[in-house]
Every structure is written in structure tokens, then in C-alpha cells.
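REQUEST FORM: STRUCTURE PREDICTION
Request ID: SP-0412
Submitted by: Lab K.M.
Chain count: 1
Length (residues): 100
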Amino acid sequence: MKTKTALAFAIAAAFQSAMLLAQEPNEMQGMNQQKHHELMPIHAKILEMQKAQDAEIGILLSEMNSATGEKRIDAIVAVLNKLVEQRTAMHAEMAGHLDK
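STATUS: Completed
RESULT:
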């Protein structure tokens, strides 16, 4: 009985090892790495754009938080308009890169 169990485990281990050895490296993985390296400068550019946009929003938020009365409402509108403008610009930028 022990011999049959040991033999079954040995066969299962052999099949498992054979399956692992038979696998070829994924060719798509190499292509993805190449594409990744091509996209790195674009990603860096987008991150810089986001930092600049964050700075713009930071200034508008400071103005909004210090404003009172009607000026506060105008400042809130300015923040919202800037956020929508930036979001639209970012979507256009990213769509331009995806179309290539």
C-alpha cells in the first residue's frame, strides 16, 4: 500500500515538473516591457501636468477659503470651473496617446 501511494506521488510530481519545464516564456511579456519603456516619458509628462494642475487648484482653494460672502461663491465657481477644465484637458491628452 505504501509503495502504491509513493508511486502515485512520484508520478504526480513528475507530471507537475514536466508541465513547468514545458512552458515557454511569454513573448507578449517582452512586448509589454518594451511598450512600458516607450510610455515612461509620456507618463512622466502627465505627472508633471498633474503637479502643475494641483498647484493651480491649491491657489484657487486658498483664495476660496479666505474669501467671504459673494466673493466666496465666485471663488467656489472658479475652483469648479478649473477642475472641469483640467479634467477635460487630461482626458484629451490621454486619448491622444491612446490613439497612437
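NOTES: The chain has a mean pLDDT of 81.
Reviewed by: T.R.
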